[in-house]
Backbone:
């Protein structure tokens, strides 16, 4: 199953876990299934308009080109949630 | 292929006959600034305006037993006094910040202390009076009774088993595990950041050489010339207008609205001209206080800080301690890195340790890595963003080890960096991979640069080199373009102009349409006149707001095509705008210039406005940035003074829209980094007071201290932007720390592990070495 890697700033929304295995063949399916495991985390990732704009998502290293919940995910994919980095 | 890439490719294939991108155009705001006409925050004048001043704590750590303002209020000319009682009632809510959740109440108490003061300079009350002298006299009449507590001044103080606990109000329990218990006791470690991948033990088992070192950097300030200020008028209808010196009006509006519990729609924030920010002007300090004083007095109120207030009570960057362990093969391949970062957060959680963690190993491929970052609270001002927040300290530590590794393995320092360079597709510490980056080009340019190759012949002169990495930002931006019938355009964006954005944005707009840069009047809007736009910071503006002005220009051309199709009575698809000749082309020989088309707008439905409100990372891709700096220094063995003799900064800048401004960013960043390396530090007394809270004693480098900073602009265009832009403003502050430290070693054989390397520390190190 794909693995979602959770950064420290968001672990509080998922029982302090740093990663979680979630089934799904698209990003939408993965996040939909995540809702039953860590519902609070899902709201940190997805808004009613799609992926939150202040959070980047990388699938197997590549940050998505657009807010593509339709992006396909392999069974052994690593999905990283990359929080924004405050600049100066 | 995403649609924006098609657009970008089409765009970059076009070469307008008239082009300003890549030239050094005249700055639109230049004349106003050099003649004194520009209106900075403290220049704002309103009818019946009065003056505000802030009463601050003389103690670094104390419980407030009582505040008596009666004598101050009785002073003739005093019209209002504000304390924490004038802020909304304490709330038990969580605030989501960029650096993690924290109790929302602390966001208010940072501005005005309620139960405890947590740093010297912490506001406890504020006065508004008819003039500044009365206000200052009134401050002395405010009586505050304190129970003084032992201060926590250093990281060691904060981590001591018996350390006083700063946040003992119980609010931390709102955020699970906000403070990390140590041995079952409460601690001042606010939160930890962990990242990395691979198998750290396996990685070090492959290492044939291992270096393990500890480095420190000092708390330092952005040092912007213009101090903080705020002018507020709270009207009887409940609407508030604020003028302030800020890097982003919308962020200020959000923060003031939150802490005062007022509607966003009732608050208008107008960004004044700004005299520097470097990250430090993304935070509110005076704005809510000025607003409350205005509400209580019924008058417009202006509050300004002096330099001591800025140094003691605004947000510097963290002092840090970094433990770095790096393993490599004898051939020079890095196989493992284990890093622990300890960053001072100041009085409330939120140091830039995550930025330090994410960038520490940024320039390199390290297959097995583990990075742990600690955010530590102590009785110093709450830290704020400062140019590449967190990165200079962690990358100093890594770059110093790389230099030592190169010497140990007898490999040229740049060759070692080249062997381990991270390029497109390589994994970053945060789990993503590098996109299109110019790391290899920067390394090659540096290695071949005459400065790097020049022979050193003088005694006690050495050369150091170091690299830097910063991810750069994207975010939300807006642009509106009003086309006038004479063919000129007023371009309004929400990006405060700090480094020449009016020009660089107008240039991108002009080139998208192929029109003259001089025909664009480039303005900065406020929160009521332009759509949401993020801060000018994070190296985002020329990229993100550049995307917005590009799309606004495309919107103008699309609307012109529709209008002119009606005039020509042809299908709109038969009309195409070409930036090559800034003209519309129709069937046959039909041609109409932009200027001719603009003249026809009043009679074809009115003028047009091109608009774009976008999230830049939804339409494009941020291009990360690499730089390498070469420093030659002389070390005076008698005085300990380090003099920078020659300095060259090489940087991948994507495409330089305005090369002189890009050079200025690089030079400015390098100078600030040199300041961190050689001079700048907060010096604290044992009682938690700052010993050097003026520019006489807080030593920033000035022109006489520095050689000319040579720059080399390496242009590797960012494919995720119409003009190839990648942010340039932050990465140049990263390499100087290690470049200078490595140069000092080359000069006199001292491995500097604690910055700044001031004369006192150099003399101490030299003496230790000789003994």
Residues:
């Amino acid at each position: 199953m794909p693995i979602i890697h959770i950064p420290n700033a968001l672990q509080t929304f998922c029982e302090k876990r740093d990663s979680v295995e979630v089934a799904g063949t698209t990003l939408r399916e993965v996040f939909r299934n995540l809702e039953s495991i860590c519902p609070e985390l899902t709201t940190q990732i997805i808004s009613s308009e799609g992926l939150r704009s202040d959070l980047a998502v990388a699938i197997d290293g590549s940050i998505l080109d657009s807010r593509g919940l339709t992006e396909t995910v392999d069974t052994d994919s690593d999905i990283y949630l990359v929080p924004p980095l405050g600049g100066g | 292929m995403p649609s924006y890439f098609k657009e970008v490719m089409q765009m970059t294939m076009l070469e307008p006959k008239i082009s300003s991108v890549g030239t050094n155009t005249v700055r639109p705001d230049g004349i106003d600034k050099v003649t004194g006409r520009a209106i900075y925050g403290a220049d704002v004048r309103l009818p019946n305006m009065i003056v505000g001043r802030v009463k601050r704590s003389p103690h670094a750590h104390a419980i407030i037993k009582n505040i008596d303002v009666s004598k101050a209020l009785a002073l003739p000319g005093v019209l209002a006094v504000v304390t924490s009682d004038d802020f909304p009632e304490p709330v038990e809510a969580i605030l989501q910040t960029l650096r993690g959740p924290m109790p929302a109440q602390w966001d208010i108490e940072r501005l005005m202390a309620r139960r405890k003061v947590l740093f010297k300079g912490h506001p406890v009350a504020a006065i508004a009076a008819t003039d500044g002298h009365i206000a200052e006299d009134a401050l002395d009449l405010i009586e505050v009774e304190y129970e003084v507590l032992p201060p926590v001044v250093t990281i060691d103080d904060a981590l001591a088993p018996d350390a006083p606990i700063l946040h003992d109000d119980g609010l931390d329990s709102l955020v699970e595990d906000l403070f990390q218990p140590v041995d079952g006791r409460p601690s001042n470690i606010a939160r930890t950041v962990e990242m990395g991948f691979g198998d750290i033990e396996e990685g070090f088992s492959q290492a044939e050489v291992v270096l393990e070192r500890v480095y420190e950097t000092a708390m330092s300030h952005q040092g912007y010339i213009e101090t903080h200020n705020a002018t507020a008028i709270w009207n009887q209808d409940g609407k508030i207008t604020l003028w302030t010196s800020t890097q982003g009006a919308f962020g200020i509006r959000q923060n003031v609205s939150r802490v005062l519990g007022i509607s966003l729609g009732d608050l208008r924030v107008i960004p004044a001209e700004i005299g520097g920010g470097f990250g430090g002007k993304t935070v509110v300090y005076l704005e809510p206080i000025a607003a409350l004083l205005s509400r209580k007095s019924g008058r417009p109120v202006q509050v300004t800080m002096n330099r001591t207030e800025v140094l003691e009570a605004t947000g510097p960057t963290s002092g840090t301690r970094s433990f770095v362990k790096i393993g490599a093969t004898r051939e020079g391949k890095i196989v493992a890195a284990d890093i622990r970062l300890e960053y001072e957060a100041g009085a409330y959680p939120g140091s830039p340790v995550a930025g330090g963690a994410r960038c520490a190993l940024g320039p390199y491929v390290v297959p097995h890595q583990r990075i742990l970052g600690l955010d530590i609270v102590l009785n110093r001002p709450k830290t704020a963003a400062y140019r590449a927040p967190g990165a200079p300290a962690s990358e100093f530590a890594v770059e110093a080890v790389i230099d030592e590794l190169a010497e140990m393995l007898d490999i040229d320092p740049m060759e070692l960096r080249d062997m381990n360079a991270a390029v497109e597709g390589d994994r970053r510490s945060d789990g993503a991979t590098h996109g299109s980056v110019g790391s290899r080009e920067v390394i090659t340019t540096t290695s071949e640069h005459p400065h790097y190759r020049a022979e050193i012949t003088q005694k006690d002169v050495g050369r150091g080199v170091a690299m830097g990495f910063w991810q750069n930002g994207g975010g939300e931006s807006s642009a509106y373009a009003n086309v006038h019938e004479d063919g000129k355009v007023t371009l309004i964006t929400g990006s405060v102009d700090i480094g020449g954005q009016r020009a660089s944005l107008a240039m991108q707009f002009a080139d998208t349409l192929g029109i003259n840069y001089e025909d664009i009047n480039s303005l900065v809007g406020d929160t009521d006149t332009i759509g949401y736009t993020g801060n000018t910071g994070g190296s985002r503006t020329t990229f993100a707001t550049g995307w917005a002005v590009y799309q606004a220009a495309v919107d103008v051309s699309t609307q012109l095509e529709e209008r002119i199709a009606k005039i020509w009575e042809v299908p709109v698809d038969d009309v195409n705008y070409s930036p090559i000749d800034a003209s519309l082309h129709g069937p046959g020989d039909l041609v109409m210039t932009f200027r001719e088309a603009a003249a026809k707008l009043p009679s074809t439905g009115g003028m047009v406005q091109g608009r774009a409100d976008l999230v830049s990372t939804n339409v494009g891709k941020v291009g990360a940035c690499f730089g390498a700096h070469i420093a030659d220094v002389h070390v005076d063995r008698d005085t300990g003074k380090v003099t920078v003799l020659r300095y060259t900064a090489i940087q991948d800048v994507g495409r330089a829209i305005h090369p002189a401004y890009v050079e200025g960013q690089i030079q400015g960043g390098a100078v600030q980094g040199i300041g961190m390396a050689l001079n700048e530090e907060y010096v604290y007394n044992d009682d938690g007071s700052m010993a050097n809270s003026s520019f006489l004693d807080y030593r920033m480098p000035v022109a006489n201290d520095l050689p000319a900073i040579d720059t080399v602009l390496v242009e590797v265009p960012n494919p995720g932007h119409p003009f190839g832009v990648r942010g340039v403003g932050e990465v140049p502050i990263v390499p100087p720390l290690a470049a200078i430290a490595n140069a000092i070693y080359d000069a006199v054989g001292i491995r500097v592990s604690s910055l700044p390397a001031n004369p006192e520390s150099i003399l101490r190190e030299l003496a230790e070495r000789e003994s």
